[in-house]
């Protein structure tokens, strides 16, 4: 833990502020923080403990039986707050440990962290009810600050925080720690240019542990070759398949589902057939709950890989596995993957633009209030047949469409042809006076700049620098 806290801490200002405010309040307090693995939960709590500078106990649960967990927790408690009693005191039950902690917190603030709490709860099925008893009665008059952390998102939501769970309503602070957005990700690599920062975000999905693998003293290409396309790559087959299956059984089933989606099978029955499984609902729901897969609704529901790192690995790294294992991964990247990076980044850039819209709507940067933003797909019947309409961005204010946008992540500028195609699609959107937002990696031609400069067009254009600096290139009224 000491080694981890020495790492440079980036972001999480709002979460730290909430934890510190709760810590400064009086009496017993309880926090529940959950989120997918490697997103930075432990690092956040370590930083919080360093900030408040108090006595603390940090117990990390692992998958073991009740007896071993009891011994390990007892040893950690004594080592943390009563080392003089080591070898002289033995805890016979979790009640005895919790009583001991309660007495230690009678007159001073004491932080007690149970990391990966689901392991403890599953090994000791009475644990939720036991902690409920201590929260409601034994610890109520103490100064204990209890923190429960968990990576099993569905378990934390349903079995810890759910309305039928013993601990429901007991937490004074509860939140899901999510991956960093693209601006927060950029703070890890301050010397990279905006394009490279965006690509790092696309390759890591904003997950803290993944971003930390990138060495800012190396070029982007050097990092990609090292982390994805070498025999000693951090993002190895074993690593990625563990990420998608978590601690669940049958990792091959999760891999088959992801492989099917990465291969273009996006409808439920298509995925089931490609994965050669009779039922995919359980695995698919687990992938959705952890944020790896997303179910999107059009007239017919379809599924996409929401985790951009996983999508990159299955789409571009996995097909080159044989060459990577022969030590020819760098060549494979240079010849077969690098030329397609901009194409891969297309959907990532669209997600970045949607985030920009939500983050800046209703401000001077984007003076239209947007409550929801999404990718839009629809099929329209015309005299010439069926016309498929796809928009990168469609934003709503309440129930009404208020903004539409188009994104281009490429070396060429956003030009007149791009604009004309986009404007033609707007004829099929049931809305009037839509505000237009155009996003481009490489800027805009003079024609598009002039178009956006005309107030009646209600259009603003945002290049990659503007996305990171929260400002448009040109802005309508």
CATH architecture of the largest domain: 3-Layer(aba) Sandwich
Strand order of the largest sheet: 2-3-4-1-5
What percentage of amino acids are in beta strands?
15-25%
Main sheet: strands, sense, barrel: 5 strands, parallel
Any low-confidence stretches, pLDDT <50, length ≥5?
1-6
| CATH topological fold name of the largest domain | Rossmann fold
Helix content: 40-55%
Radius of gyration: 25 Å
- The gross shape turns out to be globular
The CATH first-level class of the largest domain comes to: Alpha Beta
- Name the CATH superfamily assignment of the largest domain: P-loop containing nucleotide triphosphate hydrolases
Count helical runs.
23
Distance between the termini: 52 Å
Number of strands: 12
Give the integer mean of the pLDDT values: 93
Number of domains: 4
Helix-strand category: alpha/beta
Describe what this molecule looks like in 3D.
- The structure is a single chain.
- It is built from 23 helices and twelve strands.
- It is an alpha/beta fold and 477 residues long.
- The chain folds into four domains: 2-176, P-loop containing nucleotide triphosphate hydrolases (Rossmann fold, 3-Layer(aba) Sandwich); 180-228, no CATH class; 234-326, Arc Repressor Mutant, subunit A, CATH 1.10.10.10; 348-469, Trna Endonuclease, Chain: A, domain 1 (3-Layer(aba) Sandwich).
- Residues 1-6 have low confidence and may be disordered.
Question: What labels describe this entry?
Answer:
Arc Repressor Mutant, subunit A; Rossmann fold; five-stranded parallel beta sheet; 477 residues; disordered N terminus; five-stranded mixed beta sheet
């Amino acid at each position: 833990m000491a080694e981890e806290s020495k790492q440079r801490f980036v972001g999480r200002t709002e979460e730290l502020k909430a934890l510190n405010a709760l810590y400064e309040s009086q009496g017993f307090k309880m926090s529940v923080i959950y989120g997918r693995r490697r997103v930075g939960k432990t690092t956040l709590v370590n930083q919080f403990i360093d900030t408040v500078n108090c006595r603390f106990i940090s117990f990390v649960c692992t998958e073991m039986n009740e007896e071993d967990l009891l011994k390990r927790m007892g040893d950690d408690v004594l080592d943390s707050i009563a080392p003089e009693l080591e070898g002289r005191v033995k805890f016979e039950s979790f009640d005895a440990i919790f009583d001991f902690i309660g007495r230690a917190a009678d007159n001073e603030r004491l932080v007690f962290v149970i990391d990966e709490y689901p392991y403890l709860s599953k090994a000791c099925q009475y644990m939720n009810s036991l902690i409920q008893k201590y929260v409601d009665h034994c610890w109520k008059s103490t100064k204990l600050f209890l923190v429960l952390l968990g990576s099993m998102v569905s378990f934390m939501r349903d079995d810890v925080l759910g309305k039928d769970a013993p601990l429901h309503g007991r937490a004074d602070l509860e939140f899901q720690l999510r991956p960093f957005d693209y601006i927060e990700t950029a703070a890890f690599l301050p010397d990279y240019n905006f394009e490279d920062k965006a690509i790092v975000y696309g390759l890591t999905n904003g997950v803290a542990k993944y971003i930390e693998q990138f060495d800012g003293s190396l070029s982007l290409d050097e990092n990609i070759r090292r982390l994805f396309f070498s025999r000693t790559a951090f993002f190895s087959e074993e690593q990625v398949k563990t990420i998608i299956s978590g601690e669940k059984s049958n990792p091959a089933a999760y891999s088959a589902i992801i492989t099917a989606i990465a291969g273009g099978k996006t409808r439920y029955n298509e995925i089931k057939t490609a994965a050669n499984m009779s039922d995919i609902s359980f695995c698919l729901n687990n992938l959705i709950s952890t944020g790896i897969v997303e179910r999107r609704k059009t007239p017919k529901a379809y599924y996409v890989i929401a985790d951009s790192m996983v999508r990159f690995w299955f789409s571009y790294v996995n097909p080159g596995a044989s060459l990577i294992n022969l030590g020819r991964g760098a060549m494979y990247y240079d010849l077969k993957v690098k030329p397609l990076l901009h194409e891969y980044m297309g959907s990532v850039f669209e997600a970045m633009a949607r985030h920009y819209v939500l983050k800046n709507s209703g401000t001077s940067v984007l003076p239209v209030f947007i409550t929801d933003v999404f990718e839009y797909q629809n099929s329209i019947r015309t005299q010439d047949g069926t016309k498929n309409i796809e928009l990168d961005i469609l934003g709503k204010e309440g129930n009404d469409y208020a903004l539409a946008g188009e994104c281009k992540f490429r070396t060429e500028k956003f030009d007149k042809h791009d604009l004309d195609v986009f404007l033609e699609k707007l004829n099929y959107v049931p809305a009037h006076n839509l505000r237009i937002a155009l996003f481009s990696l490489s800027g805009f031609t003079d024609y598009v700049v002039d178009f956006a400069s005309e107030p009646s067009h209600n259009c603003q254009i945002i290049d990659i620098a503007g996305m990171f600096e929260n400002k448009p290139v040109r802005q309508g009224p």
